[in-house]
Structures are given as C-alpha cells and as structure tokens.
C-alpha cells in the first residue's frame, strides 16, 4: 500500500525511527509467529535542520521508577494544570513555569509534530572536547611524513579551545609533555609491561584528583584555569609548538633486522592513553585516536610475533584454533574498551598497512565506545587523508557532527519489553519493569551508553510483546515507546533528545492483512541482518546461515500465497517483495561470509554495518546497481548477471566500493574515441553521467569508498561479477525457462 | 556548512578541483577532492541512487531484449547526437581531473602578502606574549624564504594574497577559512609556517575586539546620550 510507504518515510524523517512492523501483533504468541521480531532502527541524533532545540529542561514524570518525559501522547488537564503519564498513568502537576498553558497555548513538547524534540541544558560547567593522538612511529618514511602532515592539518580543523595531546609509540611509548616554552619533555615507558591506571597516573604525576566536570555549579563562563594538564593543552595555545613537535617526529629508532617485524607496543600505548584520560578528564567528551601502520608485536595486546616468517592469523588459523595470541590480546583490548566506555571516552582506530594490523583483536575498542575504524593501505593515500578530514566536517550550524557521552534510555508501555540493542554501545545494566528476560543483542537493560556518535549512528533495538493471548487489547489501542538520549553536543553543551512514538495494536487472527501491509521490509532486513552478524561473532558461520535460511522459510510460509506442491504459484505481497532478495545477498555478503576476507577485513566490514543508518546498511547488504544507456534516463536494475549488457554502463555502490563498469560495446566505442567527436557528443555525456553520480557519493560518504573504473573483460570487473546473482552462467545462458 | 566566502572567480574555480588518488600506494584509491568541493558537499543532491528492482516472481530468468542470437554483435558507431544533449556534465572524470587552467593575472607579489602580515604582527606586539610574537615572526620569515626560493605553487600564492586581503578587511572568518583550505589542499607546502599565519589571524581578531570593547566603554562613560556616529560594536 502506497500510504504505508509514505507513513514509514515521514516517520523516519521526523523521528529517525524505522520499525520492522508498523502495526503490532497484540499477543506474545502471535508476535513470535511473525518470525521477524518487533524491533526498530533508531538514529538518535538524526539531522533535523528544521528542529531548533528548546532552551529549557524537559518535564519528567514524578514517579521515581518511571521518569518518562512529557510528550504528545500524554493526557493533559489544562484547567487543573495536570498531566497523566502515558507509560505509568501517574498524574503529575505541571511546574510553575507552565502556568500559562492552555489548549490554544501548548508547549512544544505536547504538539504532535514534536514527537521528536531536543532540549538544551543550561546549567553545569561546559568542558572542552579532548583529542588524544596515539601515533605509531614504526612506519615507512613517506607514510610517516603523510601522517604527520595530516595531523598538522587537523590542528587547523579542531576548535581552538579543544584540548589536544600526543603519545607516540614503537618499541617504547612516549607521552609528550606539551609546553609553550623551552625544551619539549616526554615520559618514556617500556612497551613490554602493562601498567595499572594508578601506576600510569603516578608515573605521570597526575595523582591529585581531577576537578569533576559534571557537577552542577554556578556557571563559569570563563575557562577554568585547571582545565588542562601538562599533557593535554588547548589548541589555540599549543598549535605552533605541537606543529613543530609533529614535524620533528622521527621513525622509531630501533633497527629492524632482515626477516623481522618492527616491535610495536600498541597495547601499552593504548593502555597509557586510557589511563591518562581516566586520571585527568573522566566523564567528558574525549577521543583517543590511534594511528597504526602494522600489528602489535610486543607486550600485552600483541597479535603476532616479530618473525616475518610466521604470518598473522587468518580465518583458517582461527578455525583450527591456531591463533596463538588472539584470546589474550582480545581480552586486553576488551578490558581497555570497557574502561574507556565507563569513563565516557571513545577510541578511534586508523589502521593503514598492506597487511593486517590486528583489527580483529582491537575492534572492541571502536565498537564498544562508538569510535571510528578506518582501514587503508597507507597514510599516503587519498582514502585515509580524506576520510580523516571528514571526521571534522561541520553541520549546517557550523558545529562538528560528532557528539559524545550519550546515554540512551528506552521506556515502553506495559505490553512491551526491551530485549536488547545492537550497535556501538555498552550496557548500563539498568533493570526495571521494561526489561525482558529474553535477550537479543546487548540485553538485560533499558539503558545503554554510546560514548561517540554522530548524526548517522544507528542502533537496532529489539522488543518483546508480552501481552498474553487471553488479554486482548481494546480496539484502537496503541502501544508506545520513548527514546531519551542525553549527550554532549560538539559545542560542549549538554542536550537531551526525546522521541516518543506510538503504533496501533492489531489482532493477528483477524487483521493479518493490516499487519502485513504495514511491514517494513527494508527495516526488517537490516534488523535481521544485525542479529545475524551479532550471532556470527560467537557462533559458527554455517549455523548462522542455517538460522537465517530457516527464518526466511518460516516467513514465506506465514505470509506467502501458494498452492501446495506448485512452486510456480508462490507469491509474496508487495510489502515483502524485496525481502527474499535481501536475504539472498545478505548470506553471500562479507558480513556473514568470511571467505575471501582476512579477519581484519571482516571486522572492518562488520564494524561499519553495525552502526550505519538504514539506507547505507541496505546498500551494504544488497549493493545498488544503476544502468546508464541511450535508451532513457539512468535506472535501477536487478543485481543480477542479466543486467550486464554490452551497450550499458553500470554503476555499483557497495558502500565500501564504487564500481563503474563499461559494457563491451561501450568500451569499444570509448577506445575508438567517439567521445571526442562533436557529432557524438551524446556519447560523451553518457560516459560522464555515471562519473558525476559517483562523484556525488564519493564527496559525502564516511568512510571514503574505494573507486574502481573498469570495463568488460577487465580484471577489476570481478568486483561487479562477484556481487551479482549469477542467473546466467555458461550452463544456462542460451536456455530458457530455468531459474 | 562552511563556505569559502572569499575569492575572485578564478581562485574559486581553482578551489573546486578533483585530483586522482595515489595509485601507487593504495589500490583503487579514490580521487581527492579539494577543500572547496568538500565543504560544498551535502547541499542539494542531484540524484539519490537508492532504488531497487524486485525480482520477477514467476522465476523466469530476466533475459533482456537486446540479447538475441549467440555470436559477437556487430559493432557500429554509437547513435549520433541528433537530439539536444542531456544536461551538461558538472565536472570531469573524478579520477583524471586536473586543476582547471584559468587566465593568470599578474603574478601574486610576495611583498603584497608579507608586508601586511608583518604589519599585523607589529600591531599585535603590545597585546600578545613576546614568545608567541617571536614564533610567528620566525614562521613569517620561513614563508618569505620559501616564496623567494620559488618553493610555493601559484595556487598557494594566490590564496595567500586573498587571505591577506581578508585579514586587512577584518574578515576574520573568511581569512581563517582560506588558511584551512590551504592546510587541507597544500599541507606539504604550507605546514611549517601556516600555523603562524593562523595564530596571527586569531591574535588580530582578539586585539580588534578588545580595542572595540575599550572604545565602546570609553564612549559610554562621558555622556550617555551621545553616541559616536558610525561606530559599530564588533561582535
């Protein structure tokens, strides 16, 4: 039904929410029979240029176990100045400031068009953003030079009052004391020995307790004099000295003999970075940015030894339980990641090398804290340089898009419980009446912490319908969910975004058609995919595929129309028509198929999949394919070998790659130079059209994709050929009537 | 969205370029967009490539109409441009674009850039710490050395001329944006001394607002009714 597509789109634009089902089955039993769980993709900080934040604090329900935020679903008695919480039915008095409200003078948060609203918190000291660079010096000369230049450039992109710090590492770890005068000093640590947070803080002379930033004191408009430390200084004070310091960085001086890898103490370097921030600036927005050009080879967190003849673990090694360092290293980084998340900081990993760098073991650092993971071949590439620049992009208001220290609190009406969340978050272990015992993803809580996020960060949140079969919901009844995200905006001010949604219940026995029509196949595909990828982290690959296939079969059994024993009669309604395709491509995707990827590559792909919004996630599951020809405007075509034609140009977007493929005839024409002849100007335009569209994607996407321009018979055509459904092969190319 | 507000037409054009990626160091390295193009991105997108096609439900393979019999299709020329061409391309191939050439005016003069910068530094001497001034001075000397030694490319020189103009007109944000664009697009050439220019812009800006605040105070005290004509408080 066209109206549901509009409804879905409007809701996504306004609330940043996409539900798998938009009409909810009213009993637990029926909900489980739907196969796809009731779940949603939530983009907490979705860009809303039309929604300026309100300058007051939200009104909360007074029941201590509820504390839901006043929203358009609440019943209001304007004369008595009372409101009834729609989640717990508590009657609350409006605060005195609301004395003037009436039916014709409603506060914004009661108006239906403000189902999503953002509040600005005025009180409390505002602490600056912190950027701690942790830089590997075991790089080749031109790589190190390119990295140094990118870091120097970044000083021009950081806000002037942000704090910045530098730790370099190789065989040893050096914490640089930043000062404006005299000789630059640094503290050197051995890269082999891990230290506790307290030891690190003692050795750096940070034993005096840090000024807590989150207390509500009288507002101090001036910069607090002790808001900085010897290791973290404001950009506007230190940029010249730091530029020089970066310029003078040398390659790690320890010689690397033939047949050996450099000794890289990434584990200790990261540990010191985490300890430094923990001791000086807990609970304030900070990014630890790790730049590394190879695997950790020394100390805790080492991923491979220094003998080149022993390669770094592959998937084969892992399956055969032959990855010597993996468990211990993963444990080390998980411990660091959890501490960092507890401190409200995030860790980014920028790994540029031709071989693996240990992303498999280190991925929790980015995944649990909401930090970024960027994987490239060298720091001297456009892919790294531009991806890194894009971290500092500004929004329509001239603020950074990055946000920090978010907590997401989910509340549901009593017929629903929360099963869990999948995304760049950690659990805050908040139990309560909304929390289900059946866990999907990170469960057992109604609150999560997302230390680093931006306007595209998206969580998958899974619910459970708990209403019993024999307690029907009155006709027209609606279930409600509220998402409250408290975070630190890049302008350092604290904000709260509140989204409250409601959907109708329906009796699946009598109204299955309605439930069916309101199915969002795109959201369902991404939510099921996230579940699959989550499982793949702990289960065997084939088991996950079998689970996925079983779910697809059950869904088709439930919602397909068919005559028994007659496969050709099988039909799915429009709202399910793309779903089987999505599942087909998902099971072949690098998220569930590790073949042909290293463990690092698989970790990289999965990292981005678990946090992107719906549109980008779908592109990753089933790449977009557009066909350009003389026969009409560019059109989407089936991701199938039958779309590869001699007289077409194809543009494929897999999210990680943009591929332009010229059909055989087009390639021949281009070789013959028709595009340079004035009477064939339309051919020139035809060649240009996909390039322009590719450019639009390349200009905006984070991380920057690889760019492949190829043609029929070219070796790079394999990127296209491996993605399309091979409906036509040498077996069936000339035969009709076979699938 | 930050836009580069400064710029005569040629310099603006020169700021919107695309260079190929580094093919030697990264396989399929994407093209490099200039700062100007990057800050432009995110505006209205012409096309949104997000549509998909459903597979036919009857299970027949989609054999397209133009594939007929086996054997190589005859290769004639493409259909000639008889109709009006479609919308003209916006840019060149992202992978092979080259900085567009524009008519070169008189070569940017080193003195036109350095003199105002040195003057600005002098203005700041009372207001800024000695060490910072010395550091900026050192970097300006480096800039002069590199310029005189022919080590700076034409786009850098042109943009520096613009930067200095904006600085002289007290357009701090514009000057700052040009410094950023130079750091992003030409970091190798400018990194050693650009941070000095950046600091100079910041010091000039704070000096200017201090002076404006002092003037406002001294104007307010003698007679409350008398406003100095034409005076505007700096934001």
From TrEMBL, chain A:
Superkingdom of the source species: Eukaryota
Keyword Endoplasmic reticulum attached: yes
Domain Zinc finger Sec23/Sec24-type: residue ranges: 58-98
Membrane topology: Peripheral membrane protein
Location, primary (coarse class): membrane
Gene Ontology BP term (one): intracellular protein transport
Domain Gelsolin-like: residue ranges: 634-720
Residue ranges occupied by any Sec23/Sec24 trunk domain in the UniProt entry: 127-392
Localization annotation: Cytoplasmic vesicle, COPII-coated vesicle membrane; Endoplasmic reticulum membrane; Cytoplasm, Cytosol
GO molecular function: GTPase activator activity; zinc ion binding
Sec23/Sec24 helical domain residues: 520-618
UniProt keyword annotations, A-Z: Cytoplasm, Cytoplasmic vesicle, Endoplasmic reticulum, ER-Golgi transport, Membrane, Metal-binding, Protein transport, Transport, Zinc
Pfam families linked to this entry: Gelsolin (PF00626), Sec23_BS (PF08033), Sec23_helical (PF04815), Sec23_trunk (PF04811), zf-Sec23_Sec24 (PF04810)
One GO cellular component term noted in the UniProt record for this chain: COPII vesicle coat
Domain Sec23/Sec24 beta-sandwich: 403-506
Record-linked InterPro entries: ADF-H/Gelsolin-like_dom_sf, Beta-sandwich_Sec23_24, Gelsolin-like_dom, Gelsolin-like_dom_sf, Sec23, Sec23/24_helical_dom, Sec23/24_helical_dom_sf, Sec23/24_trunk_dom
UniProt similarity note: Belongs to the SEC23/SEC24 family. SEC23 subfamily.
Role, per record: Component of the coat protein complex II (COPII) which promotes the formation of transport vesicles from the endoplasmic reticulum (ER). The coat has two main functions, the physical deformation of the endoplasmic reticulum membrane into vesicles and the selection of cargo molecules for their transport to the Golgi complex.
Protein name in UniProt: Protein transport protein SEC23
Lineage: Eukaryota, Metazoa, Chordata, Craniata, Vertebrata
TrEMBL record, chain B:
GO cellular component: cytoplasm; nucleus; ribonucleoprotein complex
Any GO BP: regulation of transcription by RNA polymerase II
Disordered: annotated segments: 21-101, 211-235
Domain called SRA1/Sec31: residue spans: 74-218
Annotated Pro residues bias: 70-88
InterPro entries in the cross-refs: SRA1/Sec31, Steroid_recept_RNA_1
Chief site of localization: cytoplasm
Keywords assigned: Activator, Apoptosis, Cytoplasm, Nucleus, Phosphoprotein, Receptor, Ribonucleoprotein, Transcription, Transcription regulation
Subunit structure, interactors included: SRA1 RNA exists in a ribonucleoprotein complex containing NCOA1. The RNA also forms a complex with PUS1 and RARG in the nucleus. Interacts with AR.
PANTHER family: STEROID RECEPTOR RNA ACTIVATOR 1
Family, per entry: Belongs to the SRA1 family.
Record-given protein name: Steroid receptor RNA activator 1
Biological source species: Callithrix jacchus
């Amino acid at each position: 039904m066209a109206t549901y597509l509009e409804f879905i789109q409007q809701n996504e634009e306004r609330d940043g929410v996409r539900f798998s089902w938009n009409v909810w089955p009213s009993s637990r039993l029926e909900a489980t029979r739907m196969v796809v769980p009731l779940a949603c993709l939530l983009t907490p900080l979705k860009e809303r240029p039309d929604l300026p934040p309100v300058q007051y604090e939200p009104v909360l329900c007074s029941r201590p176990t509820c504390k839901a935020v006043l929203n358009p679903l609440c019943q209001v008695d304007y004369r008595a100045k009372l409101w009834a919480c729609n989640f717990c039915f508590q009657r609350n008095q409006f605060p005195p400031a609301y004395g003037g409200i009436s039916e014709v003078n409603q506060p914004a948060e009661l108006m239906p068009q403000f189902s999503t609203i953002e509040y600005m918190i005025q009180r409390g000291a505002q602490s600056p953003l912190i950027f701690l660079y942790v830089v590997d010096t075991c790089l080749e000369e031109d790589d190190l030079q390119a990295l140094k230049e990118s870091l120097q450039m970044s000083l021009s992109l950081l806000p002037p009052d942000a704090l910045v710090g530098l730790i370099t590492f190789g065989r040893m770890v050096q914490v640089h004391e930043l000062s404006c005068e005299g000789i630059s000093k640094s503290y050197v640590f051995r890269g082999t020995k891990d230290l506790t947070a307290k030891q690190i803080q003692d050795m750096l002379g940070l034993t005096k307790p840090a000024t807590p930033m989150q207390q509500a004191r009288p507002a101090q408009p001036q910069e607090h004099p002790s808001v900085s430390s010897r290791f973290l200084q404001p950009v506007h004070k230190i940029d010249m000295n730091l530029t020089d310091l970066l310029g003078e960085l040398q390659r790690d001086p320890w010689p690397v003999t033939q047949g050996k890898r450099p000794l890289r103490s990434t584990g200790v370097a990261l540990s010191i970075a985490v300890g430094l921030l923990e001791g000086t600036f807990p609970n304030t927005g900070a990014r630890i940015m790790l730049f590394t050009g190879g695997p950790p080879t020394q100390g805790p967190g080492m991923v491979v030894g220094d003998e080149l003849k022993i390669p770094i673990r592959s998937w084969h090694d892992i399956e055969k339980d032959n990855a010597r360092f993996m468990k211990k290293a993963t444990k080390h980084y998980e411990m660091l990641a959890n501490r960092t998340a507890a401190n409200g900081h995030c860790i980014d990993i920028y790994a540029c090398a031709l071989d693996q760098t240990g992303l498999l073991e280190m991925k929790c650092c980015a995944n649990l804290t909401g930090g970024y993971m960027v994987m490239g071949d060298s720091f001297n590439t456009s892919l790294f340089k531009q991806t890194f620049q894009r971290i500092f992009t500004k929004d329509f208001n001239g603020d950074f898009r990055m946000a920090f220290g978010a907590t997401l609190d989910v509340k549901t009406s009593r017929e629903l419980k929360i099963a869990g969340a999948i995304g760049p978050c950690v659990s805050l272990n908040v139990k309560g009446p909304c929390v289900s015992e059946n866990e999907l993803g990170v469960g057992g809580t109604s609150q999560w912490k997302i230390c680093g996020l931006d306007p595209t960060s998206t969580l998958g949140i899974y619910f459970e319908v708990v209403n019993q079969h024999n307690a029907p919901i009155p006709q027209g009844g609606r279930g409600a969910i509220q998402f409250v995200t408290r975070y630190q905006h890049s302008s350092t001010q604290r904000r709260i975004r509140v989204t409250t949604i409601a959907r109708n219940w329906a009796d699946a026995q009598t109204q299955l058609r309605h439930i069916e029509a309101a199915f969002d196949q795109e959201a369902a595909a991404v939510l099921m995919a996230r579940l699959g990828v989550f499982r793949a982290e702990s289960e065997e690959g084939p088991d996950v595929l079998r689970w996925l296939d079983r779910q697809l079969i059950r869904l088709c059994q439930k919602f397909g129309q068919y005559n028994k024993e007659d496969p050709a009669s099988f039909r799915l309604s429009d709202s399910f028509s793309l779903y089987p395709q999505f599942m087909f491509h998902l099971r072949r995707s690098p998220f569930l198929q590790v073949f042909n990827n290293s463990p690092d590559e698989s970790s990289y792909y999965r990292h981005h999949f678990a946090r992107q919004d719906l549109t980008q996630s779908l592109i990753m599951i089933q790449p977009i394919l557009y066909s350009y020809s003389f026969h009409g405007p560019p059109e989407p075509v089936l991701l199938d070998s039958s779309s590869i034609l001699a007289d077409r140009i194809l543009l494929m977007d897999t999210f990680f790659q943009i591929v332009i493929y010229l059909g055989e005839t087009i390639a021949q024409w281009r070789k013959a130079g028709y595009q340079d002849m004035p009477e064939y100007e339309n051919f020139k335009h035809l060649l240009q059209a996909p390039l322009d569209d590719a450019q639009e994607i390349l200009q905006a996407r984070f991380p920057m994709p690889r760019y492949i321009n190829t043609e029929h018979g070219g070796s790079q055509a394999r990127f296209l050929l491996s993605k399309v459904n091979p409906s036509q092969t040498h077996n069936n190319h000339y035969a009709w009537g076979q699938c | 969205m930050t836009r580069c507000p400064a710029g005569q037409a040629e310099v603006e054009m020169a700021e919107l370029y695309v260079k190929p990626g580094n093919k030697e160091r990264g396989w399929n390295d994407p093209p490099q967009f200039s700062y100007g193009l990057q800050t432009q991105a995110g505006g209205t997108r012409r096309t949104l490539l997000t549509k998909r096609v459903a597979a036919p439900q009857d299970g027949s393979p989609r054999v397209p109409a133009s594939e007929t019999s086996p054997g190589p299709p005859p290769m004639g020329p493409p259909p000639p441009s008889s109709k009006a061409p479609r919308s003209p391309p916006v840019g060149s191939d992202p992978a092979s674009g080259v900085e567009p050439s524009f008519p070169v005016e008189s070569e940017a003069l080193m003195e036109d850039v350095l003199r105002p910068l040195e003057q600005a530094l002098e203005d700041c001497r009372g207001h800024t710490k000695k060490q910072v001034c010395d550091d900026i001075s050192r970097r300006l000397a480096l800039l002069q050395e590199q310029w005189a030694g022919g080590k700076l490319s034409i786009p850098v020189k042109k943009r520096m001329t613009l930067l200095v103009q904006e600085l002289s007109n007290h357009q701090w944000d514009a000057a700052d944006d040009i410094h950023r664009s130079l750091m992003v697009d030409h970091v190798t050439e400018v990194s050693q001394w650009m941070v000095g220019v950046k600091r100079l812009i910041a010091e000039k800006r704070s000096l200017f607002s201090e002076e404006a605040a002092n003037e406002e105070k001294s104007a307010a005290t003698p007679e409350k009714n008398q406003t100095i004509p034409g005076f505007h408080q700096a934001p």
